[in-house]
From TrEMBL:
Coiled coil regions, renumbered to chain: 71-116, 163-198
Alphabetized UniProt keyword annotations: Coiled coil
Keyword flag Coiled coil: yes
Official protein name in the record: ESIP1 protein
TM annotation in the entry: none
Keyword Coiled coil applies: yes
Species of the source: Thryothorus ludovicianus (Carolina wren)
Amino acid sequence: VGPYVLVTPNETRRKQLQQIAKKELDDLEQWKKEHRPGPITLVPQRLGGNESEAQVRQNQQTILMQSKYQKKHKREEYVKAKKAAEEAEILKKKAIQREKAERLEVKKRQEEMQRRQMFLEDQKYKTNELLNRLDVGLPKSDSCQIAKPGPESTAWKRSHAYKQALREDENRRLEEMKQEQQRKAELMELKQKQEEENRTRTLKNEQRSCLQSLLIFYCTLRVNNAFLDRLQNKTQPNNVCHPGYTG
């Protein structure tokens, strides 16, 4: 620590400063007392407004009740709109799932038809192979020699008849498959028409119920307004001017 100088306080100077400060504070308080604002006195007088206090209160009550009905109506409309949106979303999801199921069913039927066709082709190939084996050794159609009727010609006739029967059976199966596919297509079309009619009927019922709700609300609102008008006419006093009343 370096050297320092100790200065003794001047008591006389300190007392003088304290007295000056006290005198200034006293002068400030005296000035505040002298310049304090006095009481305000106003003569009562009639201001603007042409309705009585009872009428204003009644109007406020009517506006409050109407605002309550409006808030209630808005809340009900919001709930209905939210419910309708949820139902529409559910119906949309159901329609998507239904379309997926129908596409899957069509794909399964096509695969089944392909398997049946492959099976029939394989069966036809095996049958032709067997018949070709049976036809070995029989005379050719373009041979110059005329084959005499015998057991070989009888076997050829049997094989030809068997081939013809297989061909007819195959044609019959194909025709049955075509008819089955046509019946399924007609049933699917009928089912789609019924679903479309059901959706249209449901939409009409929802619209009808919504219109009925709006009509009921409108009638209720008219009844309430009429009741408030009657109540206001009964409780409305004569126009009285009260002194000091602000309309």
